[in-house]
Write a structure and sequence with these properties.
Length: 213
């Protein structure tokens, strides 16, 4: 069972990366919260890993902290929540935000995540209400494991600009490309500074889509 992975970042896409170590490239699926913090291509990266084995596939899911990994495991324990949906939830809600929403019974906040739906959101709140204490007490999900994981530089160092990456990330969350592009463009039009920071741009776009203030 693979529990962690350290190596050179060979591929860096929203939702999917490849880490090369020992001459082998490992494909790892990640939430946006981890994507925000990836280093440049070729740099060393360390991830917490959850290996999920199915009849037809063996898939690795990567996280920037043990807290995110624990949140993923808890979400996977909920009926009708699979890996893809768990990643979508963690792409929108940090573990602390997820724990807070569950603690106050905020079904609407979880339902706002693309693909969740009210019934699943209710199950998440109901089934995890008594299991979130460790998430509330855990270290921030932005903590860097083993000292290798660091925040990436601004978008000028990347082949695609933050706006393009934000659109790609939103599409990976299940949004239609046209809707994602329109939303990102609206955020940039309202706040030009947001275009320089991928995380801010994605979070503001999600806030627009979810009708948050």
């Amino acid at each position: 069972m693979i529990a962690s992975l350290t190596g050179a970042l060979a591929v860096r896409d929203a939702g999917r990366i490849v880490v090369e170590t020992g001459g082998v490239g490992y494909e790892v699926l990640i939430p946006l919260s981890t994507y925000y913090r990836l280093p440049q291509l070729g740099d060393r990266v360390a991830l917490e890993i959850r290996q999920v084995v199915r009849e037809d596939a063996l898939t690795l899911y990567g996280f920037s902290s043990a807290t995110e990994k624990r949140a993923f495991d808890l979400l996977m324990s909920v009926q009708h929540v699979g890996p893809k949906l768990a990643l979508a939830i963690l792409s929108v809600l940090a573990p602390e935000e997820l724990a807070a929403a569950i603690g106050r019974g905020d079904v609407d906040r979880i339902d706002a995540v693309p693909g969740v739906g009210p019934k699943v959101a209710e199950r998440v709140v109901r089934e995890l209400r008594d299991k979130i204490a460790d998430l509330k007490m855990a270290a921030s999900s932005t903590a860097a494991p083993n000292g290798y994981f660091r925040a990436a530089p601004d978008g000028s160092a990347r082949p695609a600009g933050p706006a393009d990456e934000a659109v790609s990330a939103l599409v990976n969350l299940g949004m239609k490309p046209v809707e994602a592009k329109r939303t990102v463009e609206a955020v940039v039009a309202a706040d030009a500074g947001a275009a320089e920071n991928l995380e801010v741009l994605i979070r503001k776009s999600l806030a627009v889509l979810f009708g948050e203030k």
